[in-house]
Amino acid sequence: MADGEFAFKDPHKRQNVVLKMLPVDKLEVVEHQRKARPSHIAHLVESIEKIGFIVPLVAVEVDGSHVVIDGQHRLEAAMEVGLKKLPVLVVPDKLAPRMMNLNVEKDLNIREKAVVALGIYRVFLDSQPDRKENDDEVQESIDKAYYVTLGLAYEGPGRLAGSAFEPLLKKCDHFMRRSIGNAFEAREARAQRVLDTNTMIKDVIDKAKEMGAFHQYFQYQLISAIDPFKRKRGRQNFDELFDKAQAKLEKLIDDPARIRRLGGGD
Question: Which one of 97, 125, 148 terminates a domain?
């Protein structure tokens, strides 16, 4: 153990943890972290100036460098203050995917949750492509499988109301039994189905606006109306659900009277 380092085991899981003082320029932030908020950084700068830097960062060691998985804002604030070295808790790299999800703020909207989930998924894809997608560690790290699908869909063109699709995806988009390396292609295909359905929904919304039938809850009512398994419990097949949902959308697009009724008109 090098001078200035302190090694211990966490008191619950008995995992090896090392407290180190590391140069700021040797620290990296995990790639998919959300952009740091200036207001929060300013608050932390004020705190550091008053009481010092007393809460260590948390990082994992990857190929000789240290990637911060908890403490992005504290790192930014320390750099603004001009600190050259910071206390860092170095934890086993197997904890990285779980901590990347658990340590984000709890008020994330669905787009932000999807971005984080996709980033964690890609960590597994790059480092452990043969691991099963339904592996316990993967599920615990990502939380909801459909967040990965939505993350890919958000990378596509146009605007997407992911929260409106959530009721459908909860029923049919679950963790797969195949390896992550094989499942990723299926995730991309599912994201495309979401985008295609989103385009059809926009067509219906445009027609509703033209006839004055649109209102602020129209899109949510529309997605509820096209749900083919509204009263059916249990897991549903993804492709079957979206095939039937798109068929319902095609009928709506061809029948303005149905759109008017959906909007509450006569």
Answer: 97
